[in-house]
Every structure is written in C-alpha cells, then in structure tokens.
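Quiz preparation item.
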C-alpha cells in the first residue's frame, strides 16, 4: 500500500495540497478522514470541493448535525458525511455515484472492496501546524497528485 506523510504548515498549504490532489480524482473514490477535533478535516474538504467547483465550495460546512451534505459540482456529486455522532452508516447508496468523503469513519469502511480508497489521517503538531498521513488502497493513480 502506498503511504506518505506530509507537513502542512498553514491553511494555504492545505489548500495547495487539496487542489493538487483533486486533479487526480475520477469521482468514484472514498476518502476517509481521521484526526482530532479541529485538526482540519472539514477545512480540507472545503478546499477540495472548492478546487473542483468554487461555487460548491462555498456550501461546505461541518455536516455534524445533518450527517450528510451533498454538493453538486461541474465534475461529479460530492457526498460529505460526518459520523462523529453516528455509529453506523450505510454507504451503499452513495458509493459509485460520486466522490464520498467521510469524517470519523467506522472501521468497516477501510475494508470496502472495488472502490479506490484514500485514507488521510490528520495530526496537530506541537507548533500548531498539521501533518497528514496518506494511504492509498486501489488508488495508485492518485500517487502523482500527492506532493
Ligand atoms: N495548517 C492548518 N491546516 C488546517 N487547519 C488549520 C491549520 N492551521 C490552523 N487551522 C485551523 O484549524 C481548524 C480546523 O477545523 P476543522 O473544522 O477543519 O477541523 P475538523 O478536523 O473538521 O474537526 P471536527 O472533528 O470537529 O469535525 C480551522 O479553524 C482552521 O482554520
Ligand atoms: Mg469536521
């Protein structure tokens, strides 16, 4: 499995990272986001959606109370799911219908077959910067968009 850990010193660097990453996405991926409260999962999602469709990016907020937000974009629908308060969620209705982004995923989601999976683990560093550990499953084509 491809794995890489990168340093993100500022929100601007996160924006750059998300923008580069987005150019490799086909719209059928599952992106799993883990990390402490406030580590940057929603901020990353907003930058990612913005770089795909700037208007849709304005709608991105924390779906904590709605569980799922859907953003229609020029390229493909994006399903943004937050499972912080939810134990189980069935992804079968959304997988393969667009890009699926999950904050606080449950364990079973790492094992989903036949779907390209990007696992991004966010860490807050001592200097209040961020690190992201990236793993790719069935998504080797995304490697060239990780810098
Ligand atoms: N380098 C950085 N990358 C990302 N966010 C940063 C960075 N530096 C500071 N921040 C700030 O950290 C906060 C991250 O909040 P965000 O809502 O994205 O976290 P989250 O991981 O989604 O939290 P939650 O688990 O509560 O959903 C934002 O206020 C953002 O401005
Ligand atoms: Mg969040």
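Solution:
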């Amino acid at each position: 499995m491809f794995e890489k850990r990168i340093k993100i010193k500022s929100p601007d660097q996160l924006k750059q990272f998300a923008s580069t990453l987005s150019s490799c996405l086909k719209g059928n991926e599952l992106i799993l986001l883990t990390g402490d409260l406030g580590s940057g999962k929603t901020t990353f999602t907003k930058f990612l959606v913005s770089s795909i469709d700037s208007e849709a990016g304005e709608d991105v907020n924390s779906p904590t109370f709605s569980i799922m937000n859907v953003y229609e974009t020029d390229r493909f629908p994006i399903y943004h799911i937050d499972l912080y308060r939810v134990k189980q969620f069935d992804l079968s209705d959304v997988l393969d219908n667009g890009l699926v982004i999950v904050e606080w995923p449950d364990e079973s989601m790492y094992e989903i077959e036949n779907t390209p999976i990007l696992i991004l683990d966010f860490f807050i560093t001592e200097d209040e910067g961020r690190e992201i550990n990236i793993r790719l499953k069935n998504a080797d084509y995304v490697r060239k968009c990780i810098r």
